[in-house]
Amino acid sequence: MARKENAPKRERRERGSIDPEEIIKGAFELAEEIGVDNLSMPLLGKHLGVGVTSIYWYFRKKDDLLNAMTDRALERYGLAAALKHSSDDWRTRLHDHAHAMRDVFLKNPILCDLILIRSSLGPRNAQLGALEIERSVENLMREGLSLEDAYDSYSAVQLHVRGSVVLERLHEKNKAEDSAAQAYYENLIITPDQTPLLAEAAAKGRVGGAPDEQNFEYGLSCILDHTSRLIDEQKNAPTSAAKRSRSATKAPATKAAPRRRAKSAAGS
């Protein structure tokens, strides 16, 4: 019986023959095959054909490598370009911003794993992230919101985006490990007899609790509607206060008039 030939091994490279960019590139190649969670320095060394010490020379620990990968991923997948403001209208801008973030993360699982799940951000991109939040909060404050309301509104959008993306990504990971794995909303037993409303909604394409486009858009609209109400309240607040102030100024004069007429009548 003929022996099965092993896959050709990559030749061991000489020490010092690899640079950081090549290590990062190799890390992405390996992560595409085995995922970020399973990435390790020994496996990466084997993939690149170098001793693990050659990798540690540039990256002292795995977190350092992941941070460098995140920096490259942000450039590679164009997250910054996707988040450029698309409109002068605050609602359209924030709506497009949320969808752009979600689309980039959904299309690039490694970026999702690095940033949203592992939170592997180097100092440079951590600062850029803070500046993006600062700019978004400032734009909302220009519409009349207080710092607290502007910050809470943008935080709600961020949480909504990240929550929906991470839920979908974790579902994909579970499916990869076990093809029969199902999310809780896929396990629900819906029948026309016992749950007629759910059955009717399902027939119309609704999936309760799923991080799909329909539910994402509905949740985002609710956040934007609430933010819009806060902005309207702030715009109307000065007018209401001015009316109350004018009414309070006129009130004493109205009460004083009868007294003056009473004195005049007594004198006559």
TrEMBL record:
Q: Which residues bind DNA?
A: 40-59
Q: Where is the composition biased (Low complexity)?
A: 237-256
Q: Does the keyword Ribosomal protein apply?
A: no
Pfam family for this entry, one: TetR_N
Q: Which residues form the HTH tetR-type domain?
A: 17-77
Q: Where is the composition biased (Basic residues)?
A: 257-268
Gene3D superfamilies recorded? Homeodomain-like, Tetracycline Repressor, domain 2
Sequence segments annotated as region (Disordered)? 231-268
- Identification of the protein by name: TetR/AcrR family transcriptional regulator C-terminal domain-containing protein
